[in-house]
Amino acid sequence: MAEATFNAIKFISKGDKDFGTTVRKRVNDYFKINKISRLGDYRIWIKVIALPLLYFVSFGLIMTNWYSTHLFVFYGLWLLMGIGLAGAGLGIMHDACHGAVSKKRSVNNFIGAMVLNLAGGSSINWKIQHNVLHHSYTNIDGYDEDIAPGGLMRFSPHQPVKPFYRFQVVYAWFLYGLMTFMWATFKDFVQLVRYNKKGLVKAQGKSFGKEMFNLIFLKVVYYTVFMALPIVVLDVAWWHVVLGWFSMHFLAGLILGCVFQPAHVIPSSEFPLPDKNNNVEGDWAIHQMMTTANFAPTNRLLSWYVGGLNYQIEHHLFPNMSHVHHRQVSKIVKSTAEEFGVPYYSQPTFIGALVNHGKMLYKLSK
User: Fold this and answer.
1) pLDDT tens across 299-324, in order?
2) Can you tell me whether residue 11 is helix, strand or coil?
3) 203 exposed, middle or buried (CB, 10 Å; 0-12, 13-18, 19+)?
4) Closest by alpha carbon to 279, among 17, 7, 4?
5) Nearest to 113 by CA among 103, 126, 100, 123
């Protein structure tokens, strides 16, 4: 990120309460006293097997050709693939790309790339957009690409208003469904070129030429296996395969959008801007508390499926910690926030979080 084309923001702490230092120490002490690792344990390895299995078994059943004469089941299996894909992305890939599954970097890289390849996506692009830009500059317009929906929606009060945004609370959910579809088609190429121009590819120790070659190669393999092969083998019209594949991506994208957006684009969220010197006043840890929110903390089934990402606060404060520890660590973070008078936003239910996100979409449409 030292390239002149990318000006990194600095968080300048001026008289902030010592929240960040204290919460980090207390969480470090929790792991040290209990003699446990920050990485994933047996719980995440169960997911490494179960969620991709849901994806592959469903695809295998489709490829038996027996279900091609039962279109209701045929499309249902594609939707099960979408559920497995979203779950694997949230519960496995996310931890792996943050280096939180295994102490071996090669294992994390393999798992992260494997799951992203199932979605037709790129691990290098995801790491830059999510690990570097989103986590470093949460809700800062022009830096955090998670609040930059390409002019189709307005996720920040600092973005210009367009007349059709008045309907974004209605059509946003459809656009969320296109998330992984765009990964599988054109978005990866556009992102890789943009990140290369900003020097972000080089900052990751990667070569643009090699990454572009890998991207093209993996797309060819992906479309051969999950598009061309079913069209050739199955006794259904080609457009049924295309529609089934699209329905898989739409459901996966909708699930991902409904998990990520209610954590940052809600009425309680702040959207700070850097000053002329590219500084943001305030401690980084407090910045995360002001821009992030949890939801449904008591819903264990939801928490399992979404990889603990209903505890977004804990994840943003400790991104290299596996989600299997979020529930326990949240108690430390919440009590420390209360002690220092720092906001700790948490919506009791998932539905409530979606409603809050809808309210913010409506607010930003004006």
Assistant:
1) 999 999 999 999 999 999 999 999 99
2) strand
3) middle
4) 7
5) 123
Taking the C-alpha atoms of residue 186 and residue 40, their distance in angstroms, rounded to an integer, is 33
pTM of the prediction?
0.92
Domain boundaries, the chain: 10-364
Q: Residue 253 corresponds to which tokens in the numbers above?
A: 């994208």
Which residue's structure tokens are 């529930």? 327
- Burial of residue 276 (CB within 10 Å: 0-12, 13-18, 19+) is exposed
Go through 3-19 and write b for each residue having 16 or more CB atoms within 10 A of its CB, e for each that does not: eeebeebebeeeebeeb
pLDDT tens digits, one per residue of 125-170: 999 999 999 999 999 999 999 999 989 999 999 999 999 999 999 9
- How far is residue 113's CA from residue 122's CA, in Å, rounded to a whole number? 7
Instruction: Retrieve residue 163's tokens.
Output: 């007349």
- Dihedral sign from CA coordinates of 348, 351, 355, 357: positive
